[in-house]
TrEMBL record, chain A:
Keywords: Amino-acid transport, Cell membrane, Membrane, Transmembrane, Transmembrane helix, Transport. GO terms for molecular function: transmembrane transporter activity. GO terms for cellular component: plasma membrane. InterPro entries: ABC_transp_permease, BCAA_transport_permease. The chain crosses the membrane at residues 20-41, 61-82, 94-119, 139-158, 187-208, 220-250, 257-278. Belongs to the binding-protein-dependent transport system permease family. LivHM subfamily. This is Amino acid/amide ABC transporter membrane protein 1, HAAT family. It holds the Pfam family BPD_transp_2.
UniProtKB/TrEMBL annotation, chain B:
Keywords: Signal. The keyword Transport does not apply. This is Branched-chain amino acid transport system substrate-binding protein. InterPro entries: Leu-bd (IPR028081), Peripla_BP_I (IPR028082), TAT_signal (IPR006311).
């Protein structure tokens, strides 16, 4: 019983930790992973989603409805942002870095001026249940399930729809895609808007577990970038899933045995080692492995 | 009555002992308010105060003359706090507190209080300490709002209800007070730049700054190099013995010992400490570890969490595996505040104690109940303190800042500290920093919204009115016990006397041999 509950607790911690990494990264997967824009305003987009959900919840909207609302609001904001500012910086990675950093400062400080230093939080939906010595939050289990669903949805969107095909084509070779009739400008706007919307969605999902404050987004920036960079660009979705799982698998047992400080150290160390031995990220390694297997006729 | 007469009475030249001053006279409103208390023995202060008295006699004329002189002009109070970033939730409150205090000074108001001599509050027999009010655990939570019954010895016990009085002048020494308050942005490098700027370019007369101990330690070397008068208003881990620094917040001996004592007696001896991983968290945890055995407690596990961590799933599981009687949480910043809703959602229901939560980050207002259920904290200030003087202060605050969410402990400290600075400068008769430092070392008592606060000359720390606050399942705050005056005694114990020997360091518990002795298991 004791060992069983410990194992269950470790699995639960692993799941929540991986879900946290994935949710923190999901918007960035699209914007950094596919469009190759170093989006330092990622955290503020998540913050915007969290604020949207919180304000709507306080206004009486059921929490479950505020999540898609946050997606729409932040996606619309992302589209405007892309049209007005970000599109002038395609192909200029460092320019995009500086301009998104500026956007993040304006958003953070603007929120502070407009809404004050914090906003009362939303109650975490659902209760908890216990098994043995440990108890578990139902809401985090829901978040794990939502993460899995999001992964499936993204995979379907990019591999099974016309938009996905056009988006992948435009990212790979814009000129060729254009000459084949793809309206690349629109694809870029849609893609950036989707990435922003997903950041808003995950911000709304994490909102009940977090402090709602103007600079809350900053806590997600480091985990998000680590997840996406460790995942690599060969297949961003598979890469992010792989790196979120792997990083959680390093952080959880070390954290459980030695405390949060060593958990964080182990996480950063693991990211360092992975980037060193797999400079193209986990997804490139996965891709090669799949390629070999399909060549040898196993797949 | 003319100001002249009044001042003549205030500035005693006969060197009467403070303790001999009759109660009635000591209590007279403006006397103590102007910062010239009943007894000032040092010649320099007499001269200084005399000069002020002369200045006050003809305020308009003097002010006209002073603005004509290049060295005069506005009195500049430098104020750095984090108005953005991870710590903005605290910094904005402190900024507003400074604005309120400066506005009141410019409008001719001050808080009651004045120098009472080195003996402290008891010397005046004005606000005498009484035994802690004993409640019967959780069953008998009650508000103690007036300070208890009268003792049999005839000591005064009632707090003044109205502590904001006329100072007798607009501004400070006939000059307007200006607040120069840049944003530290929760970034220690920026703090250092701003400190240099305020000292070298703005030439501030007094620097009031600092939330985290890391920020304070980042700027203290710069302060010491320039011999800048510096007031640190936060509660912290204690131990700073610095001739240029005055620490007006509560420290470990005032907060940790009473709360650990209460928690061990009420909930049991097994303590799990989860603390922010920087000097404040580490040293406060060291205090807890050293003193827990004295009251029969035992630290079963300690965990230090980096400030960037915001996902506490693993920490929560570790606490459940350790099965403590209660959890000592020393978490700082908005990232780490996430611990409370996450722990609550995960079904973690241990009683908690802290020295920072509720009173600083108003977690009981920010998070949905019951996240902070059974949280205990020995605080020197919370907005909910039900005394009349505090309610008047809260009212004044919200008239100026109607949209503010909360008035925290360190905001109140900043508020009374700036009033205290004005009093000391009036006593010194000048804003010359060395003179004001000496004036602050004369044994000042000030009637803050929390209660009487005494600035202890030899260690530059304050005695405080400490209350044990707790939140229930609906996040209603009540005060279980109170200690009207707890001294900051640790630096005295290890022999610090800044009046006689200048020092510029922070002592840590390891330097006190008694700590290792306390820490040993029986």
């Amino acid at each position: 019983m004791e060992t069983q509950s410990l194992v269950l607790s470790l699995l639960y911690q692993l799941g929540t930790s991986a879900a946290f990494f994935f949710l923190a990264a999901v918007g960035l997967i699209i914007i950094l992973g596919m469009m190759n824009i170093i989006n330092l305003a990622h955290g503020e987009l998540m913050m915007m989603g969290a604020y949207t959900a919180t304000i709507a919840t306080h206004a009486g909207v059921p929490f479950a409805l505020t999540v898609p609302l946050a997606f729409l609001v932040v996606a619309a904001f992302g589209a405007v942002l892309e049209r007005l500012i970000v599109r002038r910086f395609y192909g200029r990675q460092l320019g995009a870095l500086v301009v998104t950093w500026g956007i993040s400062l304006v958003m953070g400080q603007g929120t502070l001026l407009f809404f004050g230093p914090f906003m009362p939080s939303i109650k975490i939906p659902g209760g908890s249940f216990s098994y043995g010595d440990f108890s578990f939050s139902e809401y985090w289990l829901v978040l794990i399930a939502i993460s899995v669903a999001l992964i499936a949805l993204l995979w379907w969107l990019y591999n099974r729809t016309t938009y996905g095909l056009q988006a992948r084509a435009a990212m790979q070779d814009a000129t060729m895609a254009k000459s084949l009739g793809v309206r690349t400008g629109r694809v870029y706007t849609l893609t950036f808007s989707l990435g922003a919307g997903l950041a808003g969605l995950s911000g709304a999902l994490i909102a009940p577990t977090a402090t709602i404050a103007p600079f809350m987004g900053q806590q997600f920036v480091a985990p998000a970038f680590i997840t996406v960079v460790v995942g690599g660009a060969a297949n961003v979705i598979a890469g992010a899933v792989g790196s979120a799982t792997l990083l959680a698998a390093v952080k959880t047992p070390v954290g459980m045995a030695f405390g949060a400080f060593y958990g964080t150290v182990a996480l950063l160390f693991a990211a360092l080692v992975i980037i060193r031995i797999m400079p193209d990220g986990i997804s490139a390694r996965l891709q090669r492995w799949f390629d070999r297997r399909s060549r040898s006729g196993l797949l | 009555m003319s100001r002249n007469e009044e001042n003549d009475k205030t500035v005693r030249t006969d060197g009467v002992d403070a303790s001999a001053v009759p109660q009635a006279e000591a209590d007279r409103g403006t006397d103590r308010g102007t910062g010239r208390g009943p007894a000032i023995r040092r010649r320099s202060f007499m001269q200084g105060a005399g000069a002020t008295a002369a200045g006050l006699a003809m305020p308009t004329v003097i002010r006209g003359l002073k603005t004509a002189r290049a060295a005069e002009g506005k009195v500049k109070i430098g104020h750095i706090e984090d108005l953005s970033g991870n710590l903005a939730v605290y910094g904005v409150q402190k900024f507003h507190a400074a604005q309120l205090a400066v506005k009141e000074i410019n409008e001719g108001k001050t808080l009651k209080g004045g120098p009472v001599g080195s003996g402290g509050i008891g010397v005046m027999a004005n606000y005498a300490a009484k035994a802690p009010v004993m409640g019967d655990g959780d069953k008998d939570l009650k508000f103690v709002n007036k300070g208890g019954d009268m003792t049999g010895t005839g000591m005064a016990f009632v707090q003044d209800e109205d502590v904001l009085i006329d100072s007798g002048e607009s501004g400070l020494l006939g000059r307007e007070v200006e607040l120069i308050a840049p944003d530290g942005q929760s970034n220690n490098n920026i703090w250092q730049q701003l400190t240099r700027r305020l000292i070298q370019e703005d030439k501030v007369d007094c620097l009031v700054a600092g939330f985290t101990s890391a920020e304070r330690e980042a700027i203290r070397p710069i302060v010491d190099k320039a011999k800048q008068l510096y007031i640190y208003t936060n509660q912290y881990e204690g131990g700073v013995a610095d001739s240029n620094t005055f620490c007006t917040g509560a420290i470990c001996e005032q907060q940790v010992i009473p709360v650990v004592d209460y928690m061990v007696k009420t909930f049991g001896p097994r303590i799990y400490t989860i603390a922010a991983d920087y000097n404040f968290g580490q040293l406060t945890a060291a205090w807890t570890k050293a003193f827990a055995p004295l009251v029969g407690g035992e630290i079963i596990q300690e965990e230090f969490v980096p400030l960037s961590v915001s996902d506490f799933t693993t920490s929560i599981a570790r606490i459940q595996a350790a099965k403590p009687d209660w959890v000592f949480t020393l978490l700082v910043g908005s990232n780490q505040s996430n611990y409370y809703p996450q722990a609550s959602a995960a079904g973690l229901e241990y009683p908690m104690a802290s020295t920072v939560n509720m009173a600083q980050g108003y977690e009981h207002r920010r998070f949905k109940p019951p996240s902070l259920n059974r949280m205990y904290n020995c605080i020197n200030y919370m907005e909910e303190i039900p005394t009349a003087r505090n309610q008047a202060f809260v009212k004044r605050w919200y008239e100026m800042f109607p949209d503010d969410p909360y008035i925290g402990q360190m905001a109140q400290n900043t508020y009374f500290s700036i009033h205290l600075y004005a009093k000391a400068a009036r006593l010194a008769g000048t804003t010359d920093q060395e003179s004001v430092k000496k004036a602050l070392e004369s044994g000042f008592s000030i009637e803050a919204p929390e209660g009487a606060v005494f600035l202890e000359p030899s260690t530059h720390h304050c005695s405080h009115y400490i209350r044990l606050a707790t939140a229930d399942a609906e996040h209603n705050v009540s005060f279980v016990r109170e200690w009207p005056s707890i001294q900051p005694w640790w630096l005295q114990r290890i022999g610090v006397n800044l009046v006689k020997h200048k020092e510029y360091k922070q002592y840590i518990p390891d330097e006190d041999p008694f700590f290792s002795m306390f820490g040993k298991k029986k």
